[in-house]
């Protein structure tokens, strides 16, 4: 290439891409034919620079900004005059994606984010708690539709709503690289639940989906369950901090039984209880792919533990269960122990903040000790009282299993009140009837 010549980018005007009617705004360039490189001599460069400078001033004044802060910049994105022979295709695509973002912001009359612009050339785009209005979601979606380097997108905490999620789905129809998506705490609600179902069931690229704290309720669970049944791509799903209750638990349980791809499911901080909890526990008997189940801060209680304990007797895929703060007492601990004593896959069990009693904690520890094939290497018993004699069991387990760890913070010298009351509630033989009958005979 001659030194008298330089490379400039020329974008074809008014071209479209597939599914253009579903995109939030029209693309200014085709993804398959995004640019054409032409050579221009230096005699034309001066006039091009003058035009570019005037365009910069016009764009800057249109925003009526006195200065640029650390998170905002002018719309103009200059492409460096480096030799294109030294740039690979990925770098070219990143620059095009950045230019598309700038053009989209101009079209929608929003200010581009400096951090977002830079992240379009990396693997992660994070707009967590940064988006003010729907147009900003559109501009990001518009840019990512032409991007193939970003694999992770975080839009959490922005209240994007139904329209924002719709723009995200439109973008995912074109994008080929994003595998992680976080749309948590966006107040999606029932209006957007059908879009979430489509996202779970239809998308063939997303592996991890975070959708916590979106005000989904019991009635929405059935729609979400349809998506869980259909997907064979999604590996991790977070539905924590919503409002699923008894019916919602039953709907999701049915989906767990039929799903063949999920390895991690987070249902913590819901209201799963009674028949809903029982159904989820029972679903683990038939599921053979789930490896981690987070169901902390629900109401599984002893009935739910009965089903989980039964499932653990045959399930050989679960490696982690979080049952923290689920109103589990000594009876629940006994049910879990029946599964633990024969299970060979579970590695991490969380029972924090439950009323297991000292006897319940000891029962769990004995079940682990008496199962030579147990894979449990971490047991969490925070705020659960542990007897000093149970400490001896812990030390015995540590000596035979080098990786074994028990996380606990309450050690007591004698059995707690709940353990004593459980013992006192055992049925006793009635002797009073015999005495009364003898006294009647004497009379």
Distance between the termini: 126 Å
Query: What can be said about the biggest beta sheet?
Result: 11 strands, parallel
Mean pLDDT: 82
**Lateral arrangement of strands in the main beta sheet:** 3-4-5-6-7-8-9-10-11-12-14
Rg from Cα: 30 Å
Total number of beta strands: 15
Total number of helices: 15
Q: Give the proportion of residues in helices.
A: 40-55%
Net shape: elongated
What brief labels describe this structure?
disordered C terminus; 15 strands; 15 helices; elongated; 43% helix; disordered N terminus; eleven-stranded parallel beta sheet; alpha/beta; single chain; 443 residues; two-stranded antiparallel sheet
Structure description:
By secondary structure, this protein is of the alpha/beta class. Helices cover 43% and strands 12% of the residues. It has helices at residues 42-63, 89-108, 114-119, 134-144, 161-174, 193-202, 218-230, 246-258, 274-286, 301-312, 330-340, 357-369, 388-400, 417-424, 432-442, and strands at residues 5-10, 36-41, 124-126, 152-154, 180-182, 208-210, 236-238, 264-266, 292-294, 320-322, 348-350, 378-381, 386-387, 405-408, 411-412. The strands form 3 sheets. An 11-stranded parallel sheet has the order 3-4-5-6-7-8-9-10-11-12-14. A two-stranded antiparallel ribbon has the order 1-2. β6 (208-210), α7 and β7 (236-238) form a beta-alpha-beta unit. The longest helix is centred in the first third of the chain and has 22 residues, at 42-63. The chain is elongated, with a radius of gyration of 30 Å. The relative contact order is 0.05. Mean pLDDT is 82; it is low at 1-45, 57-87 and 428-443.
